[in-house]
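Quick one: structure tokens for this chain, please?
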Amino acid sequence: MRSLSEIIRDQITIGGPLSFHDFMEMALYYPGLGYYTSEPDKIGKQGDYYTIPYFTDLYGKLVAKQLEEMWLLLDKNDFTIVEYGAGMGSLCSDILGELKKNPAFYKKLKYCIIEKSKPMRQKELRALHHSHTSFEKVYWHDAIEEMPPFTGCILANEVVDNFAVHKVVMGEKGLMEVFVDYNDGFTEILEPAQEHLKNYFTQLKVELPVGFCTEINLEALDWIKNISGSLQKGFVLTMDYGFPSSELYQSNRRLGTIVCYNKHTVNDLPYNNIGQQDITAHVNFSALDLWGRKNGLLNCGFTNQSQFLLSLGLTEQLRKIEEAEKNNYKIKEKLLFLHTLLMSMGKKIKVLIQQKGLNRPELSGLKFSQPLV
């Protein structure tokens, strides 16, 4: 059986260089061989990286608290949670476990997971089964377009940074796009960028200096358009690694933000271990905000994950656990670890909440919201 590396090489040999976007799409999602379409675990000790829900259910409980407040703002009507890329199913399980404590809300609740990868669906099913999560609330779909229009919240936890991106460099004569060629190994070449890539920066009012390398996530813009079309009324909660434009295009990021994860090590070598390592690019939250507004999604607020969780009562939750287990020194060590983890990782992960159909709703998780520029 040919490796994914060989398949991509042969495609380049026959059809010519691939855009970095098409290379990344194949590396992550090629049927059966892409990183997210193959069998090995991605998250946890046996995988390549950790996410916060892997370590603690506190995260899901606090997100559930925010979802409960959203339900109240939507007049306690039927409420659909749509989670994109549920990973190992931990967040879904923790949210539903917490919301069960509110029977009135739970009765109105439907939880849909958008997951086109069959191996990932199986992992999510197993995780929900092991946690004894009730399956009558959970549904799987390949795409949000399969669902009828709904009221509720779209939840994207560390998802948008895995969309395939165009890689670009500002040249002396204008914007250039990075293509992937093969000559005794994968190499990068530059071609003049098409107008839709140039237009991205024009709309954001961003001027890159000569030599600056970065990424353009057009799939994120398509995603915003699609979810806005499906959401009748409610919220979009996006949590991911990234920055607003004012920070993303600073000189210290002039080499771009491509990061790869392989067996809990980090590298910037996307042409190594193709199909066996994750490839990510930081999210431009200013772009999500701008194209959200173009499609009817208004900005409720922008903050980092640490401030989001603190606003929802993280400190109080940790104190309650410590009080209940005050003679258990192992618990104290675990709580200290969790607090450190949530504060360190949480400063890197940003939170953007957008809404449709409401009149300036106030959300507890956005107590420390900051301007998005």
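DSSP finds 14 helices and 16 strands in the chain.
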